[in-house]
Amino acid sequence: MNTQVDRRLEVVILAAGKGTRMHSKLPKVLHELAGEPLLAHVIHTVQQINPNAMHVVYGHGADTVLTRFEGIDVNWVMQSKQLGTAHAVKTAMPHVNPDSIVLVVYGDIPLVNARELSTLVKILDAKKLALLTAEFENPTGYGRIVRNAQGTVVGCVEHKDANTEQLATKEVNTGFIAARATDLAHWLEQVDSHNVQKEYYLTDIIAIAVKEGGEVADIQASDTVSVLGVNTKTELALLERYYQRKRAAHFLEQGVTIVDPNRFDARGDIRFGTDCVVDVNVVLEGPLEIGHGVHIEAHNVLRKSRIGDNVQVKPQCVIEGAVIGSDTVVGPFARIRPGARIADHVHIGNFVEIKNSSLETGTKVNHLSYVGDSTVGRDVNIGAGVITCNYDGANKHRTEIDEEVFVGSNTQLVAPVKLGKGATIGAGSTITDDVPPDTLAVTRAPQKHVKGWRRPRKKTK
Ligand code: UD1
Ligand code: CA
């Protein structure tokens, strides 16, 4: 698909609005769809048409917006007062090269597709203004397109300003327009705020252009969802589900078994090998690389990790920032935290937490343990309820467990501490000193027997 435009193109993204109807402190364009701010989706799509410049008009929650997008290569244009969409574009115009075509994109329409945007620029051709319209079953809130008796576009009226007849129109303005920079600047000079909202409407330039004899080119969006705006949490939830179903469909096409596409969530960059199965209510957050034959059972959260082949993730685990080798089993109810490096054929069982630790092949930590800041060799058996005491209240220390060590249940390993190859730790021990190889260490008090011991009895009155 060639989405590139062959003339000088500059894109203005409007992202300064508050988003009153979201009822939130967060600026609207920072609300997330599939784990990414709305504005990030828009910027990403605009990048695909390779414009010569991208200007983002920001204003409400300026600092929060800039912090969230630090390092992103766009020209930020501050609109201190949000006086309307026309005012927003006007604020950006001094930064736009007058020889370019300007494409205006709204920051609150996250699923717009690049193909539609480049088509919009192409249809401008000999015309003065290009518009992307859409036919909505429920057009409430959207600007309505006004056509004359011949069917040509002559204007756009905002929902709040529309009369009954205009409100009956299902053809809406999507907000995406393309025009030459000089024309746009000229029309913007004439926009006033004489309307119900007392705002400078960008949509007024349509009637202005037509009045000056300019012809309008319009196309209708092929996919209405791609031009839906996010103005409320309800709309955000709707678009999220739509996006997720589309992603699930994509993975299904690739051969991933997704037990229920309606209970599947993918955020960011995710790759699957062949023959993977994803059971219900799984949340995947990229970057995530999943090998072949991986089985992710119900109710799991996997983030920013690399999972080897034939790994089985049993229900209710949280895996984040980890690398997990092939043929390893994790869960149920395990928490694998950042910095975990787990090799092949390892077993991590229920209520086990692993943090910033490496575990070599064949090692087992099957029940109720915390392994933090540790280096664990191959074929180690860590019994139930073993805790690496890695924190002394001020600093973190490492635990080093060499291969073939057996750590008995209910043991505390007080770091820094080293267990030599083949060492055995008796159950219930608190290990504070290094244990040499092939040695049994046990610290529990010897068992005493008191023969004929009688338990105290309740006094009777
Ligand atoms: C706008 C259009 C409407 C269209 C709809 C499509 C106008 C007047 N109306 O209405 O015709 O059907 O989008 O989704 O253009 N913004 C600024 N600065 C401002 C005001 C808004 O940057 O001063 C930004 C907002 O952050 C938002 C975008 O412009 O990203 C659109 O503004 P919004 O208030 O959502 O407009 P709508 O009422 O949805
Ligand atoms: Ca909107």
Give the N-terminus to C-terminus distance in angstroms.
94 Å
Mean pLDDT: 96
Return the domain count: 2
Binned, the helix content reads: 10-25%
Largest sheet: 11 strands, parallel
Tell me the total number of β-strands.
Answer: 41
CATH architecture of the largest domain: Alpha-Beta Complex
- In one word, what is the shape? elongated
Radius of gyration: 31 Å
Tell me what portion of residues adopts beta-strand conformation: 25-35%
CATH first level of the largest domain: which class? Alpha Beta
Describe the fold and architecture:
With 461 residues, the protein is α/β, with parallel strands linked by helices. It has two domains: 9-227, Spore Coat Polysaccharide Biosynthesis Protein SpsA, Chain A (Alpha-Beta Complex); 247-441, Hexapeptide repeat proteins (UDP N-Acetylglucosamine Acyltransferase, domain 1, 3 Solenoid), CATH 2.160.10. Helix content is 17%, strand content 30%. The protein contains eight helices and 41 strands. An eleven-stranded parallel β-sheet has the order 12-15-18-21-24-27-30-33-36-39-41, with helices on one face. A hairpin with a 5-residue loop joins strand 8 and strand 9 (153-157). The chain starts with 8 loop residues before the first strand and ends in a 20-residue tail after the last strand.
